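hi! just following up on the protien thing from before. the input was this:
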Amino acid sequence: MGRPDEIKGQGVVAFVILREGQSASKDLAEKIRRHVAQAIGPIAKPDEIRFAEALPKTRSGKIMRRLLKQIAAGESITGDTTTLEDLSVLTKLSKASEE
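and the predicted 3d structure came back as:
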């Protein structure tokens, strides 16, 4: 997702769900950044990695990208959230972005 960046215009924020047994760390975030730079290119390297337990999805399983973009930009959540499968995901992602 994109977030405002003073220098580049938009910075890249990656939301990462870890596999069972993995734990979030600065080292893992840096490995992910290096992997993206190598696999896709340096231009795609995320400025920020946010580890999450889950992503905001509708009941039909679609990821609500507009909500991720609002969280990445540090904005408050606006718009319709009645189709969300689990509202607690938004709370957890918002708290994680404040830390």
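Residues 2-98 form a domain with the GMP Synthetase; Chain A, domain 3 fold (CATH 3.30.300.30).
The chain has one domain: 2-98.
cheers
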